[in-house]
Amino acid sequence: MEDIICLGLSHREAPVEVRERLALNTSQQIEASAWLKKQEGIQGWVTLSTCNRIEFYSVMKTHSDPLAYLRGLFASLNENCESLLNQFWTRKGARAVQHLFRVASGLESMVLGETEIFGQLKQAYAQAHDLKLVNKTLHRLFQTAFQTGKKVRNQTDITRGSISVGSTAVELAVQIFGDLSHRKVVLLGAGETSEKTARALVSRGIQAVIVANRTFDHAQELATELGGKAVPFENWDEELLEADIVISSTSAPHYVMTAEKCLPILEKRKARSLFLIDLAVPRDIDPILAQKDDIYLYNIDDLRSIADKNLAERQIAIQQSEKIIEEQVEHFMNWRQLVYPSDHTDSLPQFSKAP
Amino acid sequence: MSDRFWLALATLGYGLAFIGSFYRAPSRLFKPTPLLFSCFVVTMGFHTTFLIQRGNIIQHCPVSTLFEILIFVAWSLGLAYLIVGPLYRMTLLGALTTPSIFLILLSTQLFIHDKVALSFPKNPALELHAALNILAYGALGLAGLIGAVFLLQENWLKRKQFTGWLAYWPSLHELARVQRHLLAYGLTFLTFGIAAGLFIWGTRNWLILSWAVGVWVLYLGLLVFSSLQRLSNKKTALFSLLIYVILLSTFWNTKHIPYS
Questions:
Q1: How far apart are CA A166 and CA A147, in angstroms?
Q2: Is the bond leading into A282 cis (omega within 30 degrees of zero)?
Q3: Is A51 a catalytic residue?
Q4: pLDDT tens, A191-237?
Q5: How far is B88 from chain A (nearest CA, A)?
Q6: How do residues B35-51 score in pLDDT, each as one tens digit?
Q7: How far is CA A236 from the centre of its chain?
Q8: What pLDDT is stored for residue B225 in this prediction?
């Protein structure tokens, strides 16, 4: 008789200092495989070691002590981390299966629905397969997990819609310009939200960043961090002619980008699109500018309202995802009961959050 | 098998692709699938077979009656999509082109009498003129369709009605770029089509010619002003849609074609 066991530790339970000590690189995993193969109680083993989680999926003989095997594994690698091993949680049977399917679907990820984990899981399985650590149950388990991950991503909106002001602004910029790599962004003021938004844009490939701030030193500091250029605040309008995106967050009590000042410049830009992001309260950009063709103006409330709407949509997607996972767990457990009728198969857990 | 069999099969194929794309969850409507695209390609094969068989029967390009012209226009719309869709990764257009073609084919078969013009006088210049113009109709039609998509999306972005599923749509810039390319292709076909029309013997209909040249001038102006960024992307989209409606109205000249 055998049990499916999952031993795990993730960003939710352990800080990076702990995770980095317990992470296993490829050569350690190869080394550990020799020890694992000698253990009579272990019939299959897959190690998932990423920056956010260290998890071991195993098929063990019933009544084995998973933590004892874990201690043995780290001891075989001469890793002195006995005190840290107690932080691992253990899940058995359907709960372990459910956890794996949630991981594959991105529900356990730091950024909900992210797809990187899916590739990491595939890699972990392939490595275990190459090391001949995968038995029939683990093979079936992981194939069903991959199937589940694909189903969740294809049939729900779990990966869609930004839920922060910064990423919503990026999403809108992509919707207007497509590829952002050749776009130029101008920052008026260097507030925290505008800095975050600019960072999000830079992470999507924007290379030309101009920072104009009343305190020039601060502008220079931020420009250096973002790999851009600082200009005196008085000269920001000169940059408007070539800008594609403007993020404004000054503390001015009146419009900084007034119609009077900007309309002549916008005329010179001809039909070039311009995305204006006004993060300031009171607002920096005269809304009259948005009446012109090819000018898209969003203020902080607009961005927040989109982000909130996306968040609500994601909540629905989570429920849909959990329903899919529930069905897939049931499907897998039915298969297992059919193939190994004598094994202990517990009933499906209620879909509570991981402890 | 008769030519009409292939046409019926093509109509069925477009209909199935149309239903197939709408059967999916609304949010994923515009997400590309290889299956739907393959279905479109196979259906285009049926459509082409009809045109070839009809051409063999009447011994010239199947543009002798309004029925054939409409079927040919639908085919050129499909051809334009087949080129533009994968080239510019605009599979979104499939979800719009397929129903357009399906409706053209269905309404043509339901409401327009198909009289095979066996005794149609052979006139290579007329055939070339018609074929080139119809290809222009396809490219410019798709440009108009992209214009409609652009206007819709631009309106949503301006009114801040941004939803997550809009992320499956091409960006406004991409739409504007592809539209300009299609206008250029369409205008090239239209130019040669009108030029070929000058070689058609018989009495020249100056009214038709003036109308065609007028439409050509409008497209040329649109392309030039748009390329020079003298016209906003929104206005380019709007005009490409409006001028296409004017272009479609040139169908009144088909009454001068025997058997129309």
A1: 32
A2: yes
A3: yes
A4: 788 888 899 899 888 989 999 999 999 999 999 999 999 999 999 99
A5: 12
A6: 778 888 999 999 999 99
A7: 35
A8: 94
B157 and A273: CB-CB below 8 Å? Answer: no
Contact B173 A176 (CB under 8 A): yes
Judged by CB atoms closer than 8 Å, whether chains meet at A273 and B172 is answered as: yes
Q: What is the pTM of this model?
A: 0.72
Tokens coding B19: 């239903």
Average pLDDT taken over every residue of chain A: 89
* Residue A257 zone, left/alpha/beta (φ > 0; ψ -120 to 50; rest): beta
128-157 of B, contacting A, C-beta below 8 A: 153, 157
- Please give the C-alpha separations between residue A269 and each of A65, A94, A288, A294, in angstroms, as whole numbers: 71, 61, 17, 10
Q: Find, among B98, B94, B73, B91, the residue nearest to B189 by Cα.
A: B73
Phi, psi of A7, deg, nearest 5: -110, 130
Cα angle at A34 between A30 and A39, to 5 degrees? 135
Please check whether residue B225 touches A, CB under 8 A: no
Residue-wise pLDDT tens digits, A157-201: 887 777 788 888 988 999 999 989 999 999 999 878 888 889 989
Q: Is B171 on the interface with A (CB under 8 A)?
A: yes
